[in-house]
Write a structure and sequence with these properties.
single chain; alpha+beta; Creatine Amidinohydrolase; 5-stranded antiparallel beta sheet; 12 helices; about 35% helix
């Protein structure tokens, strides 16, 4: 009995030493208060500057219940899980402040004051037209966009309704709110970034836990079993996954062709073996913010206490490619300009790069400049032409291909970490993986 208790205590100590950094997770009530606080701060501090930057004095957001504009959803209070009936939000720049009104049956939280009395005016669209005429805006932004899906949330029916009710002079003042919508979605508050670090730390800790002997038994566990462990772990902790994770294997065996796989398909299931290089692509949603992370692990062979030097060197070259990319971030540069400069510099240094970095925040593939796609390394029309603004976040996603003589094949070091650009430099929100995870972990004082 005494030996059993000692064994249990030892296992608990090992588990705590491996996974002792998981941040506190807020209750739903705490999360609700925080998100509503952020929304009030964003409307007060971010929205006026964006509307004035884009020369917009009125912004209309219109949605029906369960068919919400993705931008409108970010204006809903935390207790509203969807729009209600037809929800119309109107934001008007008076010159001194942003007036926020709800031309709807209800006030929308504490920010959007109810501005439609159905008993006095049964027609909601006529009431909206009156609100617009009273304010006489010069530019009325609506969410219509050819190239940015997140800024294209106004449905055809609602656009037709709006056109049919507006006097001609105001109909002529309708403009695309594309850049305003993108700016709203991509810009982060300092308060949001303080907590974003915690969100990223949670994602990192879940990845580390999955890439360990707690989950993986070499020779037994399959890659798909690890994928589903990640999904279950995310649910168990109370988060959601915004995409289904992938776990894949690169190994010396000639029949392993993972390095040639198109990213259009998922990796084949494989039993994890000693000597494997593992890779995971993983993301969670928490507090309305998303993560997107790719990290790597090495499965130790019998007698090994460290990964082979050639894999360490290959991983370092991947990190170098990340440095090249983030060092090319400049305010005002387009995604395509950053992509071209980074690819050229990397090739000049002897790397074999592929860069496919995207904004992250309210959405996984979020609003902002696209910096390459895995199948568009010559630049991305329209989305890649959007400029880089301060106080925005990016999933630094890329890979470097490298030939390993020891395996007689080329492999890809695939990496992704979330970073924040403050206008001067691009820094990782919770650092990045600088060394491969080891499976099993090498315990202190357990060397050869």
């Amino acid at each position: 009995m005494y030996k059993s208790l000692l064994t249990l205590a030892f296992l608990i100590a090992i588990n705590c030493s491996l996974f002792a950094q998981m941040p506190a997770i807020l209750t739903l009530e705490e999360e609700s208060h925080l998100r509503d606080q952020w929304l009030e701060q964003r409307v007060e501090r971010i929205l006026p500057d964006l509307m004035r930057r884009e020369g917009i004095d009125m912004w209309l957001l219109i949605s029906r219940e369960y068919n919400e504009d993705p931008v409108l959803k970010t204006f809903l209070p935390s207790k509203w899980l969807s729009a209600r009936r037809t929800t119309i939000l109107l934001m008007y720049d008076t010159g001194e402040k942003i007036e926020s009104l709800a031309c709807a049956r209800y006030a929308v939280g504490s920010i959007f004051e109810k501005a439609w009395d159905k008993e006095a005016e049964p027609d909601q669209w006529a009431a909206l037209a009156r609100l617009i005429e009273e304010r006489d805006p010069q530019k009325i932004a609506i969410n219509r966009s050819e190239h940015f899906g997140l800024a294209d949330g106004l449905t055809a029916y609602h656009y037709d309704q709006l056109q049919s009710y507006l006097p001609e002079k105001y109909s002529d003042r309708l403009v695309s709110g594309e850049r305003l919508a993108i700016g709203w979605l991509e810009t982060r508050l300092p308060e949001e970034m303080t907590v974003y670090r915690q969100v990223m730390r949670i994602a990192h800790e879940i990845i580390a836990e999955g890439f360990s002997e707690q989950v993986i038994t070499p020779g037994v566990t399959t890659t798909d079993e690890v994928v589903w462990w990640y999904r279950e772990r995310i649910r168990e902790l109370g988060f959601t996954a915004w995409f289904h994770p992938t776990v894949d294997v690169q190994r010396a065996a000639p029949e392993n062709t993972e390095s040639n796989r198109s990213f259009a398909g998922r990796p084949a299931e494989a039993i994890i073996q000693p000597g494997d290089l593992l890779h995971v692509d993983f993301g969670i949603t928490y507090l309305g913010l998303n993560t997107d992370t790719q990290q790597n692990a090495y499965v130790l062979k019998f007698g090994e206490t460290a990964p082979p030097d050639y894999l360490v060197a290959a991983h370092q070259k991947g990190l170098r490619l990340m440095d090249i990319l983030t060092n090319n971030y400049r305010t005002g540069r387009s995604g395509n300009e950053i992509l071209a400069a980074s690819l050229q510099q990397a090739k000049d240094e002897g790397l074999e790069p592929t860069i496919y970095t995207h904004p992250i925040g309210y959405h996984g593939h979020a609003a902002g400049p696209t910096i390459g796609m895995w199948d568009q390394q010559g630049g991305v029309p329209h989305n890649g032409d959007y400029p880089l603004y301060p106080n925005t976040c990016y999933a630094i996603e890329l890979n470097n291909a490298i030939f390993l003589p020891e395996w007689n094949k080329k492999i890809r070091i695939m990496l992704e970490e979330d970073a924040f650009f403050d206008g001067q430099s691009c820094e990782y929100i919770d650092g990045r993986q600088t060394e491969l995870y080891l499976i099993p972990r090498v315990l202190p004082n357990h060397g050869k």
